[in-house]
Amino acid sequence: MFLALRHLEIGYDDIGTGPAVLLVHGFPLNRQMWQPQLGAFVGRCRMIAPDLRGFGGSRGTGPYGMDVYADDLAAFIDALELPRVVVVGLSMGGYIALAFWRRHRARVRGLVLADTRAGADDDDARERRRGLQRMAREEGVAAVADTLLRGLVGKSTRETHPEIVNAVRALMLAAPADGVVGGLEAMITRPDSAPTLATIDVPTLVIVGDEDVVTPAAEARTMHAAIPGSRLEILAGAGHMSNYERPAAFNHVLAEFVGRLEYA
Length: 264
Ligand code: MLT
Known about the structure:
The protein is of the alpha/beta class.
């Protein structure tokens, strides 16, 4: 499906009925990374997965930033006439979810922060991302995908499910170079969200794969400790793409979390 917003065209999936759940994808991916969740909640939730500006089926140019992505999502749920949603963000999607909380908190019914971190990049991380921007421009997105792939998928999945590794690589190859460079810019310039955590007063679930090397479990524990009343779930045998690598476990904890919101 497509929806035209101001200077943007958003590609998205919208499946099921019930409490609205907004799925925000990571970098350099697109909404197809939520395939294991989209069909699994029919009859329980309305799962809505948009492509961020510059990725997948969405069109639109810069500027890129976490606030820009967050405002795009607010305009998107306005267009769908959804007053409040559960925001689920994985990795860069989590950085965006935290920006969305700062800018549009009245629209947030609950938060799920998966395989992400609150802190900003340090100088080394910024330098690495500058290198990836040059790589995307000079060598193309495939070179970036091959550099990132090992970090995105956990050791167990790499050893036992090569088809998942190949699928994640294919998702990355679909990213346009401009969107990749823009996503990297958004991550380089993102602020420290650590002070935001104590302000979160909606039900929050923190999820992480125990083999995540990009945003390790220690980051999830730090967020969990700082977000009042939050819950932490560590998924065994999953890496950074925990929703894609261990979909049954991920869906189980997500379903339980959303189910409890009905009574919150
Ligand atoms: C992501 O999965 O969105 C990225 O790996 C996040 C990051 O590089 O910080």
